[in-house]
Amino acid sequence: MKNIFKKTEFLFGITNYSKLPEDIGYEVLLAGRSNAGKSSALNALAENPKLARISKTPGRTTEINFFKVNDNLMLLDLPGYGFAKSSKSKKKDWGPLLGEYFQKRKALAAVIIFMDIRHPLKEIDLDMVYLCRNFNVPFLPVLTKSDKFSNNNIAKAISYIKTQMPESDPIAVSSKDIIGFDKLSREILNFIK
Length: 193
Ligand SMILES: Nc1nc2c(ncn2[C@@H]2O[C@H](COP(=O)(O)OP(=O)(O)O)[C@@H](O)[C@H]2O)c(=O)[nH]1
Ligand SMILES: [Mg+2]
Prior knowledge:
Blueprint: E1 9-14, E2 26-32, H1 38-46, E3 64-70, E4 73-77, H2 95-104, E5 108-116, H3 123-134, E6 139-144, H4 151-164, E7 171-172, H5 181-191
Parallel strand pairs: 2-4, 2-5, 5-6, 6-7
Antiparallel strand pairs: 1-3, 3-4
């Protein structure tokens, strides 16, 4: 099947809500702790190793990067997500940009939460789930680096996530072995139809 993500291109990063482009079409937010394997997954999805820089250098916490898939779909990367302020309290400081984004953005269709299969459901991931539930935004947990686990343990990890988030349908991917991206692609397209 044709990969609709193949022409994905980086557009720009913004740090301020007023800089957001027109609120049209669909936007899918890519979230995940730093080092979760998000950039690698985006590159694998697009079959373009140069698309997102794979690096350990975190971006600014307040930035949203726009990747255009086509005229109707953008993928939005939060490069500094792992460094957002987080506390035990329910009120999370995501910075003004992300808070306002969740509150106002009609184009926001879904959030993909990338988590290293060996370290899922860290506090910042749970914060994101809370934000999604709060604003009624569907989310998809994606367990990355599945090559680190046996098939049996992958299945266990998926069912563990499912017990914690019964409304979700978690999937596992490996950017190293290029596994799971057909499914990820289908899931993203399901969010926008
Ligand atoms: N074994 C394995 N390593 C991966 C995989 N995806 C990413 N990594 C490694 O994990 C580190 C962080 O990856 P990156 O994509 O930059 O993560 P990001 O910070 O979430 O964007 C890098 O060293 C990658 O090579 C994977 O599927 N399998
Ligand atoms: Mg990255």
